[in-house]
Amino acid sequence: MDRELNELAAVAATLLKQRGETIAVCESAAGGLISSALLSVPGASAYYLGGAVVYTIAASKALLAGVVEAPKGLRGATQEFARYQAQAIRARLGTTWGTGETGATGPTPNRYGDPNGHAWVAVEGPVCRTRRVLTGSEDRPANMTAFARAGLEELIAALQSA
């Protein structure tokens, strides 16, 4: 695992444990790297309640549908979808915080025509944040790591401002 992801996860874990709060993670293009980083910190069971890799429409419908109302015309790799993921996983697992991540890792654009290295991350909880990521890279593993890094950074920023 990427050292920086581990370091960011340790900061997020410390803040969550200090606050006595919990998190659930929903990611797609990052492929589970956000969850993996959070779970790599000893004592993760104190704050991490679960997560989902929602990589397809079928997975999204099976794991998130009916928890919160989805915005009309919702599609993946958008700010709205990242927020929906974060809201739905938070509601599904009853956590203080939820994170969402969705994007196009490459090496080709996604089916919506979004460019390689395009993603949105969202944090929903006492403070809500979103961030667009644009790496401009076709390097799939590097994009996955960049998306996970952005998700953890936004989580830390939300925890620090709450």
- Tally of DSSP helical segments: 5
Low-confidence stretches: none
Helical proportion, percent range: 40-55%
CATH fold-level name: Maf protein
Output the helix-strand order: HEHEHHEEEH
- The number of domains is 1
Strand count: 5
Radius of gyration: 14 Å
Please give the largest β-sheet.
5 strands, mixed
Q: CATH homologous superfamily?
A: CinA-like
Q: State the strand order across the main sheet.
A: 2-1-3-4-5
- Spatial separation of the terminal alpha carbons: 29 Å
Tell me, rounded to a whole number, the average pLDDT: 95
Strand composition percent: 15-25%
What does this structure look like?
The chain is an alpha/beta fold. It has one domain: Maf protein. Helices cover 43% and strands 20% of the residues. The two termini are 29 Å apart. Strand 4 and strand 5 form a beta hairpin. The protein has helices spanning 3-19, 33-39, 57-64, 79-93, 140-161, and strands at 23-27, 48-53, 97-104, 118-124, 129-134. The model has no long low-confidence stretch (mean pLDDT 95). A five-stranded mixed β-sheet has the order 2-1-3-4-5.
Secondary-structure map:
Layout: H1 3-19, E1 23-27, H2 33-39, E2 48-53, H3 57-64, H4 79-93, E3 97-104, E4 118-124, E5 129-134, H5 140-161
Parallel strand pairs: 1-2, 1-3
Antiparallel strand pairs: 3-4, 4-5
Highlighted features:
20% strand, 162 residues, 5 strands, globular, Maf protein, alpha/beta, five-stranded mixed beta sheet, single chain
